[in-house]
Structures are given as C-alpha cells and as structure tokens.
Design goal:
By secondary structure, this protein is α/β, with parallel strands linked by helices. It contains three helices and five strands, in the order βαβαβαββ.
Length: 97
Amino acid sequence: MQVLIPAPFWVSYPEMAKLAGATPVIVDCPADDGFLLTPAALKASLKPASRLLILCSPSNPTGSVYSRYVIRLNYELKPLTYSQHGSCNLKSILLDI
C-alpha cells in the first residue's frame, strides 16, 4: 500500500504513513507550479499500490492553497485503469473550501 505525499510536506507525513504500514511516495511539486500537485504529476505517480493521497490546503509549510478547479481536476483522475495491473482506485475526499 502506498501513500502519495506532495512535496514540500510537513515533516511527519511520511512517518505517519509508515506507522500505518504503508510506503510513503513523495511527489515533487516545484515552485514553478506554485508548490501545488498538478493533475499530470498525480497521474504520473499513481501505481496499482496507491491507496491514499495526503492533500492539505492551505499547505504546510508553503502556504499554497488549492483552488476548487485544481482539486476537481485531481479528483476526476480516479479511477484509472492500468493495462498490465488491472484497475487502481484512488479514493478522494473533497472538502467544501
């Protein structure tokens, strides 16, 4: 089981994933993208073992805020189908922000 963690991230997120028995997968979110997870970066990081995405808004430590549009784009990526591995369902919770 993998937990996707957009970077930069709060220092304890990977350890929380490990405590839950999961493998943290760090997804780079560069300054050029406003330190925000893009749909393309999320799609590229998804694997059959992906089960959880930690998505905080406003993000700590950068203070970046996800717009409804970006959250909706990321949400619409699930479920994804992998030709070699069957299907991968990434459960998402949308908060009314």
